[in-house]
Amino acid sequence: MQNSNSLKQEFFKKWMMGLQIYTTTNENMTVTERKTAIKLSADIALASSRNCATRWSRAVIARSSVDNRSCFVANGVLGRGLCERVKQISNLKITRSSWSSGKIVKRSRRVWRRRRRRNKCMAAVTIARRLVQKRTKVLRGLVPGGEFMDEISLIEETLDYMSALQAQVDVMRFLATAYNPSSSS
């Protein structure tokens, strides 16, 4: 895990680089285009500040390579070779385990139902398990690339993603107060 200050500095440097690359192609931007430029360059800078070492950062970069302008910004911040390599890694199809086969799932559900009927005291465990499954599903939707991770990787990636997002918020908050010093008093 990177030092917080070095992560913030790396993010800020790459974010400014991404904004410069994005704005050189369009001088007269609308408010919506500026918002898109800020968000796109912030996402790419955040992912690239982790040097594509995490799954979420690779997922963000792969997602950013959808249209030409964002791909142009990603290539400028990351370098064309790294961006292409991340896209190739992300395009690999991840196959699901044999547990997704219909027969195994149906059979395991039948066994589970029999056990549940036999043991009524397991109700609390069942409720807790469902709650964990629901929250895990929500977490998979929040973390970029989370839908392809097992639970342990998901937790590790979520912690890393949260620390990166905190650094992003700190840098943006600092910039907002630097440009508008009257609001901080």
UniProtKB/TrEMBL annotation:
Principal cellular location given in the protein's record: nucleus
Q: Where in the cell is it found?
A: Nucleus
Q: Pfam families attached here?
A: IBH1_N
Q: Per the database entry, which stretches of residues form a coiled coil? A: none
**Which residues does the UniProt record annotate as the domain IBH1-like N-terminal?**
5-62
One GO cellular-component annotation of the UniProt record comes to: nucleus
Lineage top rank: taxon = Eukaryota
Q: Does the keyword Metal-binding apply?
A: no
Gene Ontology terms describing biological process: regulation of DNA-templated transcription
Keyword Transcription regulation included in the entry's annotation = yes
What InterPro entries does the database record attribute to this sequence?
Answer: bHLH_AtIBH1-like, IBH1-like, IBH1_N
Keywords tagged on the record: Nucleus, Transcription, Transcription regulation
The record's annotation in PANTHER family points to:
TRANSCRIPTION FACTOR IBH1-LIKE 1 (PTHR33124)
Q: What is this protein called?
A: IBH1-like N-terminal domain-containing protein
Phylogenetic placement of the source organism: Eukaryota, Viridiplantae, Streptophyta, Embryophyta, Tracheophyta
